[in-house]
Amino acid sequence: MPVEGQLGEKRASLESLHAMALRGRSLPSAFVDVDAFDHNLARLLLPASLHGKQVRLATKSLRCPALIERAVQHSAGLIRGLMTFTARETLLWAERGAADLLLGYPPGGLQDAQWLVQANRRTRAAVIVDAPQHVTWLASAARTAQVKIPVWLDLDMGWRPVAGTHIGVRRSPLRTPDDVVALARTIAEEPFLELAGLMGYEAHVAGLPDDGRLASWQNPLKRWIKERSWPDIVVRRGEAVQALRTAGLVAGNWSCNGGGSGSVDRTAQDPSVTEITIGSGLLVGHLFDGYRGLDLQPALHFALAITRIPTPGIVTCGGGGWIASGSAGADRLPIPVWPVGCTLLPVEGAGEVQTPVRLPEGIAAEIGDAILFRPAKSGELAEIFSEYAFFSNGAFGAHVATYRGLGWSAWG
Ligand SMILES: Cc1ncc(COP(=O)(O)O)c(C=O)c1O
């Protein structure tokens, strides 16, 4: 049997186990298979431990402190800190006592800089910059409070194989060693800012599955991009770090962050990188399926109650329209995974208040039964559900609070 088939069968039996264990529980509910989570963690940490790198956890891809803390505790010291996604959220983590925070996105104003000042009164909370305006806000807030803020530069890793092209995400304008050195000098002039690192996130490698489920005709092109752009990534990240060293701008406590869950095996081998970011690969939203060589297991599911049976063969569940961010398309919808063979209806998709599902031939279901789904992305479901139930060894256990359950709002 081909590997895919075996994997599919293993998943189906796991999902049937989940479905059986759900009997009698209140619906809807979201749950984390912690055995799968621990398996994914061990797999994602492996390349870092083999190549002597550290790891940073992307909080956006979990948004559940109990899970984030579990990963840190089970990492045998490999996870050195968290990559947060807003200044407010960074402060919440500082107040919770987390050490070594890096806000992986630049501040949007003085208020963000002030939140970072507050975070730095409690812990070390660095922030990414890529423009003089970011430096101005941070320097002003830090000077006023007489508190030091560690600052990292963001190097754009997009691939430009031919003039006028850009393959990758749109993040930083800093592309060349000269660009990073110029902004680093501006930072060095500020007594309350400390240049502490450089991040080069290769999104066009880390974020592209090799065997995407939809639009599979694009898969060979994606694999080609990943393969062919890799040398450019290693060279440009290395040149940027070297230029900062030559300019005398790299001090002792220096870090270089790269990668994401989808690139751990490659990024761990880049000599300039000191730490790798992981996140999505722990819970594995279905957009994270199809990375060759990464045998990750889906760890996050939600179960909806069938509330109506509008016609034989179609059941309608309460809720479900939790669509993932990104370029809008069918791939952002959750997918029903149990009973095996269920599908969404193309005209309705997953709805704001209800989600119809077509049952496979020969499968009957009743009002009150559960349909199991996987979300497209890993983190966003934690903004919908207040808690996740832990599932391990065939049974449900503790319930843990998500950001929503804790009342944590990253955005205001
Ligand atoms: C700055 C940065 N680093 C790393 C990642 C990869 O995170 P994950 O492993 O959750 O895909 C992301 C994802 O968007 C990111 O924005």
Folded structure, characterized:
The chain is α/β, with parallel strands linked by helices and 412 residues long. It folds into 2 domains: 3-32 and 295-406, D-serine dehydratase-like domain (Lyase, Ornithine Decarboxylase, Chain A, domain 1), CATH 2.40.37.20; 35-279, TIM Barrel, CATH 3.20.20. It is 34% helix and 22% strand. The chain has 12 helices and 17 strands. The strands form 2 sheets. Strands 1, 10, 11, 12, 13, 14, 15, 16 and 17 form a 9-stranded mixed beta sheet that branches. Strands 2-3-4-5-6-7-8-9 form an 8-stranded parallel beta barrel, surrounded by 7 helices. Strand 6 (149-154), helix 7 and strand 7 (193-200) form a beta-alpha-beta unit. The radius of gyration is 22 Å and the shape is globular. It starts with a helix and ends in a 6-residue tail after the last helix. The model has no long low-confidence stretch (mean pLDDT 94). Pyridoxal-5'-phosphate binds at residues 58, 61, 104, 201, 206, 260-261, 277-281.
Index terms:
single chain; 412 residues; alpha/beta; Lyase, Ornithine Decarboxylase, Chain A, domain 1; TIM Barrel; 2 domains; nine-stranded mixed β-sheet; eight-stranded parallel barrel; 12 helices; 17 strands; 34% helix; binds pyridoxal-5'-phosphate
Outline:
By secondary structure, the protein is α/β, with parallel strands linked by helices.
Query: Gap between N and C termini, in Å?
Result: 51 Å
Number of strands: 17
Order of helix and strand elements from N to C terminus? HEHEHEHEHEHEHEHHEHEHEEEEEEEEH
Content of β-strand: 15-25%
Helix content: 25-40%
* CATH class descriptor of the largest domain: Alpha Beta
Largest sheet data: 9 strands, mixed
Q: Please name the CATH architecture of the largest domain.
A: Alpha-Beta Barrel
Please give the domain count. 2
- C-alpha geometry: globular
